[in-house]
Amino acid sequence: MEIVALQVLNSLFYAAVLFLIAAGLSLIFGVMGIVNMAHGSFYALGAYVTAWSVVAAAAAVPTPVLFLFLPLLLLLPLLLLLIWLMYLISVLSAVVVYLLLSVLFLLNLQWLG
Prior knowledge:
The protein is mostly helical. It contains four helices and no strands. It folds into two domains: 1-60; 65-113.
């Protein structure tokens, strides 16, 4: 029984070390802007689950009802574009505020000096 407990603790320790290495590499790749190829497995899993759920839903719903949802699928890219534009505007506004505060700080330093 001691050997089993020792093996379980050993495997948990090894899994924790592997997790720390993977999390560190993922963080480094994310900061550097390099695409991590290990994330492809998550994309593949998501695509498989999506395809399975679409086929399951299409089998359960009559075809004329599916055509009613077609306009919603056409609006999805427009919704994603709108979300991206809102994100871009928020980032640009943060940059503008940062630049204005920097200029005001520098002007304040010149005025005091």
